[in-house]
Design brief:
Layout: E1 3-8, H1 13-24, E2 31-37, E3 42-48, H2 51-60, E4 67-73, E5 88-89, E6 95-100, H3 106-115, H4 127-135, H5 141-149, E7 156-162, E8 169-174, E9 179-182, E10 187-190, E11 202-205, E12 211-215, E13 218-222, E14 234-235, H6 251-257, H7 259-267, E15 271-272, E16 277-278, H8 287-291, E17 295-300, H9 302-319, E18 323-327, H10 328-331, E19 342-348, H11 354-365, E20 369-374, H12 380-384, E21 387-390, H13 403-421, H14 427-448, H15 451-461, E22 466-471, H16 475-490, E23 493-498, E24 515-520, H17 526-537, E25 542-548, E26 560-564, H18 572-590
Parallel strand pairs: 17-18, 17-19, 19-20, 20-21, 22-23, 22-24, 24-25, 25-26
Antiparallel strand pairs: 1-4, 1-10, 2-3, 2-4, 5-6, 6-7, 7-8, 8-12, 9-10, 9-11, 11-14, 12-13, 15-16
Helix pairs in contact: 1-2, 4-5, 7-13, 7-14, 9-13, 9-16, 13-14, 13-18, 14-18, 15-18, 16-18
This protein binds 2-deoxy-2-amino glucitol-6-phosphate.
Length: 608
């Protein structure tokens, strides 16, 4: 949601905080600010707008000092404006803090604090924390933070500085991700590793309930009773180039174009051709556990929910186990049916999406074994699940998910293969899947070569106001994903629908102004989709068909065809989704949209 950073050390904090905020801007980008201990109090600068605007402001009004905190915001409480931008201070201006999360009981706390005479300057939930700390008893900042947090319901990743305790940052975590970066005689705070990688690869992931106290070169972690907590120091595997544009105009295009490599990375070391199965060391699902699975529930949000839908068909096909796919935000509040043999899989690129995390926790509380299919190493879902599969797709910076989607599908196929072979999937069939998976990276490269054609299409459709995406079987979730990409990037209203379902309503939308994108690879439902295409053509709809190479059937049925290489039907979504990613990207660029920072969105939704 929001991004927080902190620094305490011998160097000037401002440039380090700004670089960190620039790296975290994909988490939220409607306002930003910093607070720095300047030797005679706290210097606070904040404004509505992007991190680069804050950078320009600090260039005109520099803040000096080696200890500071910073924030880039995705507004939840209080409009995105300068007044509500973080950091927030107490009445005296001696305490400043930045926060990622939501204080559920902020209204009640605010009313109580106002009755005690506190004056609030903003509409935010976060400001209550500053006044609570101001009010709290304790000889040290950390004691006061601990005391203040006993009154708080909600989620937080928090960093606090005080004018009266120089060279100290107090950090707290409950529900929102925070890590410490361990440098040479300097320490960093960040919502995720991309903000500290420039300075160190050594990070400490804080757990819920942790309070960390940072002073130059020294830190310790305590719990709410001030008992010291030991936390491991982990190494970040990827390097800076992974979070640089690398010559591309946008992270989204870079991430689309690197999918041949990222699919290869998800497969690396996991294919066993002779045995016709997959090796998934982190899954922690021994053969007997595979045999005991009665049903699988996939919980996810957004694009991850779409890959979950593909996963359902793949897993049912390869294992014979019934799979249901649930919107995590709905599932977490439904009655949990604690049926024996239930396995819950949380699919999440960031591993921090609050609804998916809570749905996973609810399933566990109801007795289900929980697995995570996650991209971000060390994220909460990864650390709290009983086992899982890392995508190894590298950091995904573009807010619109692309390479994570294709790698999630590959991971779900690997899961289905592994569990299927532990049950009744025969070796030959397993080998066929392994063979086709091995070919996938190269087929992805061939699909990416369609880009010039897709640019021409984008030129033609950039002015459209609506768009319908249709597909059947495993292509239905691809249609949903194509529609989501167009919506979130170009703000064009778009809908994805099962192709046959079109006759039950959406067909009313069809006319010469409605582009209809059919995802129609040659598979077992292909003939059925052809009839749906005829129904659209008969009503003057303009058809774009994502179909299999060498498919001469479509003739005049489609206005434009984008041929993707043939593969196993179960794997086709990895290929058919790529032209839809590129189409949405190029249309958004032509409409002058901010592709990497679409309006109103954030990369990881860590609040409810
Ligand atoms: C997709 O492009 C969006 N960014 C969004 O729908 C995203 O997929 C959703 O928020 C889930 O995120 P996660 O995979 O990190 O849990």
């Amino acid at each position: 949601m929001c991004g927080i950073v902190g620094y305490v050390g011998a160097r000037e904090a401002a440039p380090i905080l700004m670089e960190g905020l620039r790296r975290l801007e994909y988490r939220g980008y409607d306002s930003a600010g910093v607070a720095i201990q300047n030797g005679h109090g706290l210097g606070v600068v904040k404004l509505a707008g992007r991190v680069h605007a804050l950078q320009e402001r600090l260039a005109r009004e520099p803040l000096c000092g080696g200890t500071g905190i910073g924030h880039t915001r995705w507004a939840t409480h209080g409009a995105p404006n300068t007044r509500n931008a973080h950091p927030h201070c107490d009445c005296t201006g001696t305490i400043a803090l930045v926060h990622n999360g939501i204080i559920e009981n902020a209204d009640a706390l605010r009313a109580a604090l106002e009755r005690q005479g506190h004056r609030f300057a903003t509409e935010t939930d976060t400001e209550t924390l500053a006044h609570l700390i101001e009010d709290a008893a304790g000889a040290t900042l950390e004691e006061r933070v601990i005391a203040a947090l006993t009154h708080v319901d909600g989620t937080y990743g928090l960093a606090v500085v005080s004018a009266t305790e120089p060279r100290k940052i107090v950090v707290a975590r409950q529900g929102s991700p925070v890590l410490l970066g361990i440098g040479e005689n300097e320490l960093f705070v960040a919502s995720d590793a991309s903000a500290v990688l420039e300075h160190t690869r050594s990070v400490v992931y804080l757990d819920d309930g942790d309070i960390a106290v940072l002073t130059p070169g020294e830190y310790h972690v305590i719990d709410g009773d001030s008992h010291v907590q030991l936390r491991s120091v982990d190494d970040i595997a990827w390097d800076l180039t992974a979070i640089e544009l690398g010559g591309y105009p946008h992270f989204m295009l870079k991430e689309i174009m690197e999918q041949s490599e990222t699919v290869r990375a998800t497969l690396r070391g996991r294919l066993l051709f002779e045995q016709g199965t997959a090796r998934l060391n982190g899954l922690n699902l021994p053969p007997e556990a595979c045999a005991a699975i009665q049903r699988i529930v996939i919980v996810a949000c957004g694009t991850s929910w779409h890959s979950g839908l593909v996963g359902r068909q793949v897993i049912e096909e390869l294992t014979g186990i019934p799979v249901q796919v649930e919107y995590a935000s709905e599932y977490r509040y439904r009655r949990q049916l604690a049926l024996p043999g239930t396995l819950t899989i949380a699919v999440s690129q960031s591993g921090e999406t609050a609804d998916t995390l809570e749905a996973m926790r609810a399933a566990r509380a109801a007795g289900s074994r929980v697995l995570g299919i996650v991209n971000v190493v060390g994220s909460t879902i990864a650390r709290e699940s009983d086992g899982g599969i890392y995508l190894h797709a590298g950091p995904e910076i573009g807010v619109a998910s692309t390479k994570a989607f294709t790698s999630q599908i590959v991971a779900l196929v690997l899961f289905g293969l592994y569990v299927g072979r532990q049950r009744d999937l025969d070796e030959e069939r397993g080998r066929e899947v392994v063979r086709r998976l091995t070919q996938l990276p190269q087929l992805v490269s061939r699909t990416l070569a369609l880009d010039p054609q897709i640019q021409a299409l984008a030129e033609r459709y950039a002015g459209t106001r609506n768009c319908l995406y249709l597909g059947r079987g495993v292509s239905f979730p691809v249609a949903l994903e194509g529609a989501l990409k167009l919506k979130e990037l170009s703000y064009i209203h778009a809908e994805g629908y099962p192709a046959a379902e079109m006759k039950h309503g959406p067909i009313a939308l069809i006319d010469a102004n409605m582009p209809v994108v059919f995802v129609v690879p040659k598979d077992e439902v292909y003939p059925k989709v052809l009839s749906n295409m005829r129904e659209v053509q008969a009503r003057g709809g303009r058809i774009i068909a994502i179909t299999s190479e060498g498919n001469g059937d479509l003739g005049t049925l489609a206005d434009q065809q984008l041929p993707v290489p043939a593969t196993l039907p179960l794997l086709s979504p990895v290929l058919t989704s790529i032209p839809l990613q590129l189409l949405a990207y190029h249309i958004a660029v032509r409409r002058g949209c901010d592709v990497d920072r679409p309006r109103n969105l954030a990369k990881s939704v860590t609040v409810e």
